[in-house]
Every structure is written in C-alpha cells, then in structure tokens.
Amino acid sequence: MSVPSHRWFAGFSPEEQQAMQAIVQQVACDGQVVVLEENASADRLYIIDEGAVAVTKRLESGAMEFLSLLTQGDCFGEMVLFSTEQRSATVVTVEPTKLSMVLHTDFVRFAAAHPRAGMQLYHTVGMALCQRLRAMNDKLRDLVEGGLLAETSATPQSGAASASAGDTAQRQVRLAATLIKGIADLYEHPEVSDTTRQHFLRVMQQQAAQLQQALVLIETRE
Length: 222
Fold this sequence. Notes:
The chain is of the alpha+beta class. The chain folds into two domains: 3-113, Jelly Rolls (Sandwich); 117-219, no CATH class. The protein has helices at residues 14-23, 104-113, 115-145, 148-154, 160-180, 183-188, 194-219; strands at 25-29, 34-36, 44-50, 52-58, 64-71, 75-76, 90-93, 97-103. The radius of gyration is 19 Å and the shape is globular. 22% of the residues are buried.
C-alpha cells in the first residue's frame, strides 16, 4: 500500500506519511485463509490492497454466519488502534489477497512521535465506526418494523436456555439502540473535545460488538 494514496492518510504531512509507510508490512494470502479469528487476541489492523475477505461470526450451533464482504481499500481489525481486546469476528480471504498490516505496538509509537497524525487517524476510524453503527441501527429498525423482535419474544421456545438466549439478545439490542441514538452525532459535533471523542469511541466499540452479536442471534431465530 502506498500511504499517500490511501484515504485514511489524507492530510498527513510528507514526514508523517514517510513514518507511517515505514511501519506498514505487506502480507500476501491465498484464498480461504483465516486472517483474523474470533476471540483471538488483537494486535494488528489490515487494509486490503487487492482481493477480498469475508467477515463471519460463529453461531451457538457452530455454523458460521456471513456478516459482510470487504474489498480493495477497506480495512478490518481497526479497533486495535484503541484496545487489544479479543476479536469479535473471523475474517477469511475469499480469493488471493494482498494486505497492508500495521501492528498495534508500531502504531502506538507512531502516534507518540506524531500526535497530530495519530489523532487524525483516531478520528478517521471513529467516523467509520459511526457509519457502521448507523447501519446497524437501520438494520435494527427494520427488525422492529418487521415485527421480528416482537415475534421472537412471543414464539414458544424449546427450552429454558433458548428462551434465555432470546431474551438476552432482545435486551442487548434495545440497550445498544438506546446508546447508539445520538452518539454518532455527538461524536461528529465540532465542539466535542478529543478526550470526549476517545470516550465515545470506546463506548461505540463495545456497543457495535454487542449489537452485532445480538442481531446475528435474532436473525437465526427467524
């Protein structure tokens, strides 16, 4: 990946671009290679230079649920910029794919040496997360308008565990929806401080993971 050509690094000075390019590593994968695995520790982010990957999540039944397809220019694992918590999904290449990789430890050093560029990148990832949360909220609204949540609560369950899982999913969705409402707009408000934005990012990261898990569980009960 050429740092100057990627939208994430628009606005970096030539010195900042050179420093970022120095920590980018190139990775080439064949098709059907697991790049990130759900629940594994997180220590790096990826940007797709060529090819495509599928984002999936394992269901309670053991089956894999397809979440999205990412292609050239997209990124994944970006929340490692903020924390090294466990991965929330599995990412698998669907064809021969070339990736650019940045280790969490390298980015921390980069941000310390180039705080302006580091904060800009934090903000860029935050804006991307806002878009993801809005898309999830739209999906949630469709579920509500379609009566799926109501049907889920009214459908007889085969056992206490199934009923408990359904109730938990509904609570997660409703809680996430409550927190999502307005938080993306607050993040983008020009008078919000960088410190507050970082707090919002942590909240959005948690809610995005919870909402995605709940939506997958609910959809499999259709």
